[in-house]
Design a protein that fits this description.
The protein is α/β, with parallel strands linked by helices. Helices cover about 35% and strands about 15% of the residues. The protein has an 8-stranded mixed beta sheet, with helices on both faces. β4 (about 120-125), α6 and β5 form a beta-alpha-beta unit. The protein is globular. The chain binds S-adenosylmethionine. S-adenosylmethionine binds near residues 51, 53, 54 and 87. One of its GO terms (cellular component) is nucleus.
Length: about 325
């Protein structure tokens, strides 16, 4: 799809470029905030799976820049924002970047070190694997990313803090809900207006971090495994009975963002240009600096070049 055509079919893609966001995902976080007020009182935050960086931009604009521009900025520490991704990201004001895999313990250690013994107020995770189209497989890999995020949460989030994570809705959604409920008394699955209805993504908004009494981080996986297993359910308030049958768990699901706002599944006409010239599509704000498909593009370019050279050769010799 060309840029102008995408501008027409994807209003959030066009708006992101107009407002200086690196990706349309920025609107998802903004719309979650409209509903849940997630930035209130936040001074320290971790952005997991952050590249190309539109959520980090939101964090910078909502937390770091206002603090930096405030008259008493000299007397207070600026908000701490740590962003992590497999891919490198172009710099963002007030955002510390860590390049690494969130499923790797060493990455978690680097993040924790940046907090220097302090705890975070908010952890966000927009992680997504490269989707295969095999629904169950994609949902499984996605849930592993969330659990890696949850591992970091148990080390770094302060009691009462919030965790926002992208989920893929599928047949194991109830299990994931119950696992999150172990640590957060309030869990809502939210669908921002900027997330297409045709997409299975939604966001778990987990509030008021309250790990079980006597919880130790090394028990995390044992506890998660007990959820939904008939043997381990008795001492948990979200056992196997919650996952099936007439008692099946009820998951709070909420659409968020201004319901009269732009509809991500609709095409909108391109804006009229005042001086009568044709509409010019804007370039993306910050293309990825080292995307995983970079090598593929280089190989494709080299292959096209070789074909052209061969064609020139055969023309010369005819
Ligand atoms: C949808 S994008 C995130 C978009 C970002 N929130 C933004 O607003 O620009 C998903 C990201 O997850 C990252 N990711 C996937 N698996 C990861 C992993 N195991 N560790 C770190 N990052 C990962 C990908 O590299 C990709 O940049």
């Amino acid at each position: 799809m060309g840029k102008a055509s995408r501008d027409k079919r994807d209003i959030y893609y066009r708006k992101a470029k107009e407002e200086g966001w690196r990706a349309r995902s920025a609107f998802k976080l903004l719309q979650i905030d409209e509903e849940f007020n997630i930035f209130e009182g936040v001074k320290r935050v971790v952005d997991l799976c952050a590249a190309p960086g539109s959520w980090s931009q939101v964090l910078s604009r909502k937390l770091y820049l206002p603090a930096k521009l405030s008259p008493d900025s000299r007397d207070t520490d600026p908000p701490l924002i740590v962003a992590v991704d497999l891919q490198p990201m172009a710099p963002i004001d007030g955002v510390i970047q860590v390049q690494g895999d969130i499923t790797n313990a060493r990455t978690a250690e680097v993040v924790i070190r940046h907090f220097d013994g302090c705890k975070a107020d908010l952890v966000v995770c927009d992680g997504a694997p490269d989707v295969t189209g095999l629904h169950d497989m994609d949902e499984f890999v996605q849930s592993q990313l969330i659990l890696a995020g949850l591992t970091i949460v148990t080390h770094i989030l302060r009691k009462g803090g919030k965790f926002i994570a992208k989920i893929f809705r599928g047949k194991d959604t109830s299990l994931l809900y119950c696992q999150l409920k172990l640590f957060f008394p309030k869990v809502t699955f939210a669908k921002p207006k900027s997330s297409r209805n045709s997409s299975i993504e939604a966001f778990a908004v987990c509030e008021d971090y309250s790990p079980p009494e006597g919880f130790s981080e090394k028990d995390l996986y044992r506890l998660l495994k007990e959820i939904g297993s008939p043997s381990g359910a008795d001492n948990l308030d979200c056992g196997s009975a919650w996952l099936e049958g007439p008692n099946k768990v009820y998951i709070p699901f909420l659409a968020c963002g201004d319901l009269c706002g732009y509809d991500s599944d609709r095409s909108y006409p391109l804006p009229q240009v005042a001086d009568g010239t044709t509409y010019k599509s804007l370039d993306p704000i910050q293309p990825p600096i080292a995307p995983p498909y970079k090598r593929a593009l280089e190989l494709k370019k080299a292959a096209n070049q070789s074909v052209r050279e061969l064609e020139d050769l055969s023309l010369d010799s005819s």
